[in-house]
């Protein structure tokens, strides 16, 4: 890697820190759990790295490490998004406090 | 266009999707769409990644991905909502493990002697942080799944031992920088696994969710480190986003519990003695009543507060509780649910469970609103909650939960505790509230007791 490459990555890193903090600056506590689960799914992007390592492996040790990494990362990414969706699904019929939906209206 | 260029544009696209996903997830309206945008960006990134020049072994990769999917999807789909915290811990752990393996594997593949020091540091960071996150998450999982005790585990000299392990990791890391031997870096990885476990052991069960959030941001950073190792902009962006937002989220969670992060992570050291001392209250009497008595009290109240806790979730009693609330409302009783920010085992966990039972959203009062309503409440029905209503948080400076904001149910005219036994709560602390005059206990499984209450209210 050339010197300018690493500087590029460091630039991206530094800016991402600020974006990461800024973008979730206000989260109601109701959403803490789904947000944690959602970010958990996003770091499953390590699957991209795991694929490269496995696809490029020389020798048995690295092959095994790569396979384990791909399996782990896939569990992370797939499981993470599915469980987050399942959590959020439960919020969907929540009526807005101001305009009660018909679903909320016919309750005894 | 060259493949490289296309791949970089795809990386940019996925990174934007992830930012939009986080943005969506942090407000109730866009949450579900946010998650779907994130998943879409991920799918695109992974799909195009197959086009990476020099990538071989498609079959093995696809098989490994199929195995991962076959494990991940059923777990995510069918595990009970009450077990969500440990599920997130588990998914986080494997993510951290993958990050550590990627960094390690890249190190083994290159000629270590030719690596510059900064490249070795990138590898080390990925290996160390990923391993800590992996083993820490496993222990957190075990605590929540009750495979081991949820109490803080402490032993003499714990701080010294943890400190020594940490120092050894740093020393090993320095050694690798000077003389990059495979054996040494494997040793560093093993020590990091030990450290992750040792770090989590003294943290009490009630605090584990905050810890999972912290480990989640650790995994993000480990992924970012692996991104540096592999020169992948996408991994750096996504990992850093999770690392930064996860750290902020961890702080918000600990604030919701009214405690500092440092207090949560390190308070078990030394406070254990005080905690045991305090529980020397055996032999005191409590009042208990039958479901019929409680039903009459409820039916003739004007205002009833339902205070749900983890016990309600465990007993899967959210539907019965809604039935009871509907019955009471039909009789003209005003009913509200008082939701402590950390009721259940994670912030927001209880809202998810009650939403599942179609409890109207406007009946869920957050802590401040609920506390304003308690003085005019006739009956506070505490279902499987304990620590979040424990006055020790206000009155007893030695208590591990001291300083945590609580629901002031003691201000209600009557307090009914639905409890399975006299066992103390998740944090292992005795609850003074149970011995007060205004308090009555209804023993039994939360669901059974509620079913009896429903029947009794119908007959009243």
Radius of gyration of chain A: 21 Å
Oligomeric state of shown chains: heterodimer
General form of chain A: flat
- How many alpha or pi helices of chain B? 18
The first-to-last residue Cα distance of chain B is 78 Å
Mean pLDDT of chain B: 86
Largest interface: A-B, 88 and 115 residues
Total domains of chain B, how many?
A: 3
Strand residue content of chain A: under 5%
* Run of helices and strands of chain A: HHHHH
Specify the number of helices of chain A: 5
Unreliable segments of 5+ consecutive residues of chain B:
269-282
Tell me about the biggest sheet of chain B? 6 strands, parallel
The global form of chain B is elongated
Please state the average pLDDT score of chain A: 83
Spatial gap, N to C terminus of chain A: 68 Å
Number of strands of chain A: 0
Helix and strand content put the structural class of chain A at: mainly alpha
Structure description:
The complex is a heterodimer of chains A (108) and B (460). By secondary structure, chain A is an all-alpha fold. Chain A contains five helices and no strands. In chain A, helix 2 packs antiparallel against helix 4. Mean pLDDT of chain A is 83; it is low at 93-108. The model of chain B is unreliable at 269-282 (pLDDT under 50). Chain B is α/β, with parallel strands linked by helices and 460 residues long. Chain B is elongated and about 80 Å long. Chain B starts with a helix and ends with a helix. Chain B folds into three domains: 1-78; 85-278, no CATH class; 291-459, 3-Layer(aba) Sandwich (Rossmann fold). In chain B, strands 3-2-1-4-5-6 form a six-stranded parallel beta sheet. In chain B, helix 1 packs parallel to helix 9 (233-256), helix 4 packs antiparallel against helix 5 (117-144) and helix 14 (318-330) runs parallel beside helix 18 (446-459). Chain B has helices at 3-25, 31-49, 58-78, 84-109, 117-144, 158-178, 182-200, 208-230, 233-256, 261-266, 268-278, 291-299, 310-314, 318-330, 349-356, 367-373, 392-395, 446-459; strands spanning 303-308, 334-339, 364-366, 379-383, 414-419, 439-443. The interface between A and B is large, with 88 and 115 residues.
């Amino acid at each position: 890697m050339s010197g300018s490459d690493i500087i590029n990555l460091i630039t991206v890193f530094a800016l991402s820190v600020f974006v990461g903090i800024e973008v979730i600056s206000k989260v109601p506590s109701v959403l803490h759990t789904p947000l944690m689960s959602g970010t958990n799914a996003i770091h499953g992007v390590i699957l991209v790295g795991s694929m490269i390592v496995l696809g490029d492996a020389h020798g048995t040790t690295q092959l095994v490490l790569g396979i384990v990494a791909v399996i782990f990362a896939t569990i992370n990414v797939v499981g993470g998004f599915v469980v987050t969706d399942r959590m959020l699904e439960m919020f969907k019929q929540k009526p807005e406090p101001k305009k009660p939906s018909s679903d909320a209206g016919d309750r005894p | 266009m060259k493949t490289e260029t296309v791949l970089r544009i795809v990386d940019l696209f996925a990174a934007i999707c992830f930012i939009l996903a986080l943005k969506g997830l942090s407000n109730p309206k866009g949450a579900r769409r946010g998650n779907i945008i994130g998943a879409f960006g991920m799918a695109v990134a992974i799909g195009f990644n197959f086009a990476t020049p020099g990538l071989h072994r498609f079959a093995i990769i696809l098989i490994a991905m199929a195995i991962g999917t076959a494990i991940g999807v059923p777990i995510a789909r069918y595990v009970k909502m009450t077990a969500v915290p440990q599920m997130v811990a588990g998914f986080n752990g494997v993510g951290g493990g993958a990050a550590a393996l990627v960094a390690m594997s890249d190190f083994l593949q290159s000629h270590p002697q030719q690596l510059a020091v900064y490249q070795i540091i990138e590898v080390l960071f990925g290996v160390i942080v990923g391993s800590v996150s992996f083993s820490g998450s496993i222990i957190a999982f075990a605590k929540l799944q009750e495979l081991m005790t949820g109490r803080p585990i402490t032993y003499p000299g714990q701080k010294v031992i943890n400190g020594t392990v940490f120092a050894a990791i740093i020393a090993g890391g320095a050694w690798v920088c000077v003389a990059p031997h495979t054996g040494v870096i494997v040793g560093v990885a093993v020590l990091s696994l030990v450290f992750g476990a040792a770090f989590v052991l003294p943290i009490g069960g009630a605090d584990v969710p905050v810890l999972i959030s912290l480990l989640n941001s650790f995994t993000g950073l480990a992924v970012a480190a692996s991104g540096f190792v592999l020169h992948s902009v996408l991994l750096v962006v996504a990992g850093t986003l999770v690392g930064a937002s996860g750290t902020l989220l961890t702080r918000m969670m600990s604030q919701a519990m009214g405690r500092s992060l440092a207090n949560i992570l390190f308070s078990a050291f030394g406070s254990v003695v005080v905690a045991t001392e305090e529980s020397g209250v055996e032999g005191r009497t409590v009042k208990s009543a039958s479901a019929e008595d409680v039903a009459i009290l409820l039916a003739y109240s004007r205002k009833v507060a339902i205070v749900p806790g983890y016990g309600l979730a465990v007993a899967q009693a959210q539907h019965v509780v809604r039935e009871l609330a509907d019955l009471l409302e039909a009789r003209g009783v005003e009913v509200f649910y008082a939701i402590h920010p950390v009721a259940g085992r994670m912030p927001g966990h209880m809202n998810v469970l009650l939403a599942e039972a179609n409890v109207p959203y406007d009946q869920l009062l957050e802590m401040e609103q609920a506390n304003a309503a308690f003085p005019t409440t006739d009956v506070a029905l505490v279902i499987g909650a304990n620590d979040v209503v424990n006055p020790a948080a206000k009155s007893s400076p030695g208590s591990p939960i001291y300083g945590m904001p609580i629901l002031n149910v003691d201000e209600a005219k009557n307090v009914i505790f639905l409890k399975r036994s006299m066992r103390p709560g998740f944090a292992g602390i005795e609850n003074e509230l149970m011995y007060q005059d205004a308090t009555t206990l209804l023993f039994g499984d939360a669901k059974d007791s509620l079913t009896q209450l429903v029947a009794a209210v119908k007959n009243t």
